[in-house]
Amino acid sequence: GGMRLGVHVHQNTAVTGLIKSGDRVVGVETSTGSIAAKIVVSAVGGHVTSLAAMAGLRLPIRTHPLQAFVTNHYAQTFHPIVASTSLLFYVSQTARGEMLMGAEIDRQPSYSYRAGHHFLQSCAHRAVTLLPFMRNLRILRQWTGVCDMSPDYSPIMGKTGVEGFYITTGWGTWGFKAIPVGGEQMAQLIATGETPELIAPFSLDRFANDRTLADRGSAGTH
After folding, report:
1. Same structural domain for residues 184 and 145?
2. pLDDT tens, 11-21?
3. FAD dependent oxidoreductase domain spans which residues (predicted)?
């Protein structure tokens, strides 16, 4: 969708640094060259602390591995995203009809991408407990990513105190459930320079000003 509107996607391109003019970020250095920008937004999930450090920022973020898997195609349309706070489990259906499932984060912070059979067995048991029809499906593939956890389990969005450098991070395990509206709000901030009312409570300075949010149960998978 974004590419049809003129967005340029640089695949297999690593960010190696930020370009600064005085105290302002004015672009990014990548493995394929430099890109100038009036505004740079960090939306890199579990790797946000490394990128923020390039701007001279230290963020209150911990990185944890998060595993997931998908099953074969399920013929019926399954519209909702279902999450259980008691089972610490979620499931949704992909555009190809596969059932996507995940559970809680690995408790030990790390950048490990190793997937484990114990997770697969535990998560499959939760799946059939919550949705018995899933016992007839077959697991196709499993993988691990890293997610970004804030101290109050809520996202951090908006300006950072470094001119030209914005962040959207701390989404933890519920980013893909909530990020569509988050993306719209960040786009409004970029276009106007003014923080939208909806995301104002999620500013980075809430930690310094003792305005943390109590939202740990929102994802159901912490």
Report:
1. no
2. 999 999 999 99
3. 4-189
**Which residue range forms the structural domain that includes residue 32?**
3-61+152-212
Number of domains in the chain: 2
How far does Cα 183 stand from its chain's mean position?
11
Range list of β-strands (E), 47-164: 62-73, 82-84, 89-93, 98-103, 139-149, 156-159
CA atoms of 48 and 58, how far apart (whole Å): 10
Confidence of residue 40 (pLDDT cuts 50, 70, 90): very high
One-letter amino acid of 134: M
What is the distance in angstroms between the CA of the first residue and the CA of the last residue of the chain? Answer: 31
Sign of CA dihedral 10, 202, 39, 187: positive
- Asked if 193 and 201 touch (Cβ cutoff 8 Å), the reply is no
The predicted-structure confidence for 75-113, as pLDDT tens digits, reads as follows 888 888 888 888 888 999 999 999 999 988 888 999 999
CB–CB of 129/119 below 8 Å?
no
Q: Has residue 220 been placed in a domain?
A: no
Domain end residue (candidates: 96, 118, 149): 149
Q: Are residues 83 and 30 in the same domain?
A: no
Q: What is the pLDDT of residues 113-128, one digit of tens each?
A: 998 899 999 999 999 9
**pLDDT tens figures, 55-67:** 999 999 999 999 9
What CATH number is attached to the domain comprising 72?
3.30.9.10
